[in-house]
Amino acid sequence: MTAGAWIEAARDPVIAGELEAVYEQVARAIAQRGPICRASGRCCNFERWGHRLYVTGLEAAYTLTRLGEEQAVSVGDIADARERGGCPFQVGMLCSVHGIKPLGCRTYYCDPTAREWQELLTERSLAEVRAIHERYEIPYRYGEWREILELLLSDDGL
User: Fold this and answer.
1) Nearest-CA neighbor of 108 among 127, 125, 93, 84?
2) Are 125 and 76 in contact (CB under 8 A)?
3) Strand, coil or helix: what is 52?
């Protein structure tokens, strides 16, 4: 029932509005810093870039519930992305869900001058997302992006 609770919460306009407010704060903080993105989407290939994307259940549900038909993914698409080592929403070198992407994507920059402040921004913003989970009694889980997406697309979710 956890995946169902995430989907229900993501569809609630009040809860979604609070998550969007966190995303807007992040956008303003990043705009003030002006980091440079030199990787051109390479960081979305997690295996080659040497990192993982972690999200909360609410964030992943938010993304999935806002996909257009042309963006829809299946468990098979996620398995294919895992085999390639990347994100199921990367098309070429571009993010097909840029406007609805999770916090980890919003705060990660390969700019070497961004390391310290991006970590602080991520931790502070993640605490705000966790507070949304707690305030609305949404089950909290923080996990790897593709695993959480698979959980949401299973029989318990979408």
Assistant:
1) 125
2) no
3) coil
**Cα angle: 114, vertex 131, 71; to 5 degrees:** 65
Asked whether the beta carbons of 54 and 143 are under 8 A apart, the reply is yes
d(CA 95, CA 36): 17
97 vs 155: CA distance, rounded Å: 23
Interval 43-61: pLDDT, tens: 767 777 777 889 999 999 9
Tokens of 139: 């089950």
Residue 53 to residue 95: CA distance in whole angstroms: 14
Give dist(CA 112, CA 2) in Å, integer.
Answer: 37
pTM exceeding the 0.85 threshold for the entire prediction: yes
DSSP string for 82-150:
HHHTS-TTEETTEETTGGG--HHHHH----GGGHHHHHHHHHHHHHHHHHHHHHTTPPP-EEEHHHHHH
